[in-house]
Structure formats: C-alpha cells, structure tokens
Fold:
Amino acid sequence: MELIFLTEEDACQLQSFFTKTGVHLSYTKQQNRYVFFFPRDENTDRYAEALTDFIINVKRAEFLDKMLSTHFFYENEEERIQIIDIVTAMCLGKRKELTAFTGKMNEHSIVKQAVIAVFETSDAVLFDSLLTFRLQDYYDALKKYLCVAIDEYKMEQDYQMFVSMLRDYLHKQEPKKKLVHLSLTDPVCFYDENSKVMTRDEVMKLVDRRLLFNHPVYIDSAVIAPLLSIAPNEILLYTDSEEKAIIRTLLNIFEERLKILPLADFRK
Structure:
C-alpha cells in the first residue's frame, strides 16, 4: 500500500517519527509526490500501529490548533496551547471530571480502525484524504472534547482573575491577628493565637461586608471572607484532606502565609 504526501515537509515528519519508534520505512520522491510503500506482510499490524501513534501523538495537536483557529477564532497562540493541553490531558485520562461531560472516547481504537481500513482496501491513498475522509468520527470526538476544554479554560481564566483580585485585597489589609488556627471540620472552626475558639459571632464581626456584597457568588463566607478580613500573618490550617478545592484556593490566595497540618496535630 502506498501512502502519498504532497509536501516533503509532511513526509519528513512521518519519517522522523518512524525513525524514533524503530520502524524502518522511508519515503521516495516520485515527481512532485513523496511516497511511503507499506508491504503487505507479517509487519502490517506494526505499520498500522506506528501510523496510528503518529496521528495521535503528532497530528492531534495540529488538528486541535487548526480547529481553534478556524472554527473558534482563537488568534492567540498561547491560549491555543493551553486549551490543547487540556484536551491532551482528557485524551490521556487525566481529566475524568471533564470527560464525564462528553463520554470517554477510545482514541487509539477509533484511529487504528480507520488506518486498518485503508491498509485493507486501498492500493494508494493520499495522507490528506486519510485524514479528511477516514477520521471524521475522530474529529467529531475531538471537537466535543475541545468544546469542554474551552469552557474549562475560560473558567480557569476567571478563577485566576478572581484569585489575583483577592491577593491584591489581602496585601492592602492590615493584619487584625498575627496567627489564626483554622480547622476544616464540620462546622469550620477558627482559633486565635492562644488556640482559643472564636465564636461565629466573633468571626463575623471581623468580616469586611464589602467582600460579600461585591462578590456574593464567589466569596466563601465561612472561610475565605473571614481570613481575608482578618488578614493574619500566619494561618495554620488543620485538615485530613488536602484535595479539597477550597484548600487549593486558600493556597493560591495566601501563599506563604498558609501552612497545612494534619487535623490530629491540632487535637493534641
């Protein structure tokens, strides 16, 4: 089977990938075309596997970049890179919370089935035709991933702006206490420098109401608003679960002021 490229640059890209992965095939120039010849022998499945890996590992990012430019009108390269990184993580199974919205595609199976079909039914095929006509299901699945990744990217940008705003607010605040102990139990408990519990009323009296008025949706009134209002020089946070989303936010806002300790340490 002959796989035909219209530009030497594209042929060299596949040639380089084959060399790195130990596939001993090279292209020949025939007039204005660059041709790989795949013999139909006991190595056919290996060739199909290598071409599948090439499409996934090399071409996927190019597909996504083109979609972002032409369909979603993302002109900024850095933005496109960040969105593509999210899709890549989804494809690798690292963002299950996102693929829950789309369903998990079997990327390798979709691509390899298309490649095998070409090997079995064609004597010669343009690589561009393989991508355009045989991989439509793959493109459709990638586009679903891309839509979710774009939403996630926008949310992440909003989150970063939110955190930056709160950092700015914090740096302008005069500390009301040098040290606060915080236990992320249910309910959340604040303690002063002497490890004396602060009642809910005591905590709420320290809260800057402007935070809740200006950002009622985003500001957590139980933890974030009190800590920002008190603006302590040091926060000792006791928890048994560092995976909570609020801990990530607290670390991003308070940075070196925040220290995380096991809940058992405070009970001692």
